[in-house]
Amino acid sequence: MGKTQSVGTFYFWFADERWEWSDEVAALHGYEPGTVTPTTELLLSHKHPEDRAQVADTLANSIENAQPFSSRHRIIDTSGRVHHVIVVADQMLDEAETVIGTSGYYIDVTDALEERQQETLDDALPELYASRAVIEQAKGALMLAYGINGEQAFRVLSWRSQETNIKLRALAAQLIADLGMLTDSMAELRTRFDHLLLTAHERIEAD
């Protein structure tokens, strides 16, 4: 198989435990697009043995309490390669604003950079140096929330910047401003942090 993308989307409906993976998430697990139907059993079978129980508990809590499925863990693809991933998610609502599931992104933060990711990093460096303080703060928040290193935190910020077409500096500043309002427990903080990360661009006024 060719190189996999670093970010892919997923949807999970609580009622019938139905999953939907983007081609990128399927590839992350080692499958060609359209060749696999994701299930909870399949998902858990790809988790690293040391992380499987934690992910199973997180998923069970997500279903029981109608909470986003968010986690940091390792995936073993069909070829045996280990991927370190962050699952960043938010609630999925129906037209009546009832929580019916969770949707979000798998982010591959494995240390080896893909060529496209390196290009993204190079393109963003000038803005990084011009706005070091606020970006370093945002990186620190990501490192604390997800247990990742500085390079991986910057890759997550860069991804959201590209995904939302918002300047990296503005996105980092909004995230830090939003964090000042959080006073929850660590578990609640992680869930709310995911929400802030995925919606920060909506609170930035257009230039």
Question: What would your notes on this structure say?
Answer:
This protein is α+β, with helices and mostly antiparallel strands and 207 residues long. It is built from eight helices and five strands; from the N terminus they run E-E-H-H-H-E-E-E-H-H-H-H-H. The chain has helices at residues 23-28, 40-45, 52-65, 115-130, 132-146, 150-164, 168-179, 186-199, and strands at residues 7-13, 18-21, 71-76, 82-93, 99-108. Strands 2-1-5-4-3 form a five-stranded antiparallel β-sheet, sandwiched between helices. Helix 5 (132-146) crosses helix 7 (168-179). The longest helix is centred in the middle third of the chain and has 16 residues, at 115-130. Mean pLDDT is 83; it is low at 1-5 and 112-121. Pfam families: ANTAR, PAS_3. Its EC number is 2.7.13.3. It catalyses: ATP + protein L-histidine = ADP + protein N-phospho-L-histidine. This is histidine kinase. Keywords: Kinase, Phosphoprotein, Transferase.
Q: How would you sum up this structure in a few lines?
A:
With 207 residues, the chain is α+β, with helices and mostly antiparallel strands. It has 8 helices and 5 strands, in the order E-E-H-H-H-E-E-E-H-H-H-H-H.
What are the main properties of this structure?
single chain; 207 residues; five-stranded antiparallel beta sheet; disordered N terminus; 8 helices; alpha+beta; 47% helix
